[in-house]
Amino acid sequence: MIYKVARRNVPTASGREDRYYAVAVAAGRSTMDMIVDKIENRCTVTRPDILAVIAALVDDIKDRLQSGQIVELGELGNMQLTVHNRGGAASEEEWTSDFIKKAAIVFRPSTLLKHIAATTAFTRWSQSKPTDTTGNDD
Q1: Which of 28, 24, 48, 18 is nearest to 36 (CA)?
Q2: pTM assigned to the model
Q3: Would you list the domain boundaries of the chain?
Q4: 22 contact partners, CB below 8 Å, separation of at least 6
């Protein structure tokens, strides 16, 4: 993974200060068409069938999330709809639905995906050439 160092003005005990953080540099995008093409080339399923299955999967996930289910997607991970609140009421009797700010989807990656994140090597981006910060500078 390529990263760059970016300045952020953040709050501190003494006010605000500039701090520097690593930020991931996107290495392009993978579109649905690209993913479907790769799947089509790896198996006997045709493009329309792949698109139909993906569309049906998205519809089913939406229905299950809205009904409050945790959706388990095997080696991909799990999804669940959660609630964000605007503070809290002093008592259950004082609580109304006005305290609900919004719903959000929480994604919990599988062990396989967590392993990818844990074993990713980092390379610092520079305009001349990437600099390896994993101890493998050449």
Answers
A1: 48
A2: 0.72
A3: 31-68
A4: 3, 4, 5, 6, 122
In terms of Cα–Cα distance, which of 136, 138, 131 is closest to 22?
Answer: 131
Q: How far apart are CA 29 and CA 27, in angstroms?
A: 7
Q: Which helix (H) or strand (E) holds 100?
A: strand 100-109
Are the C-beta atoms of residues 123 and 4 closer than 8 Å to each other? Answer: no
User: Minimal CA–CA distance to 106: which of 69, 55, 53, 63?
Assistant: 69
For the stretch 53-72, pLDDT in tens is 999 999 999 999 999 999 99
CA gap 27, 137 in Å, rounded: 21
Per-residue pLDDT tens over the stretch 5-38: 999 999 999 999 999 999 999 989 999 999 999 9
35: which 2 tokens?
Answer: 């993913």
Token pair belonging to 88: 């809290």
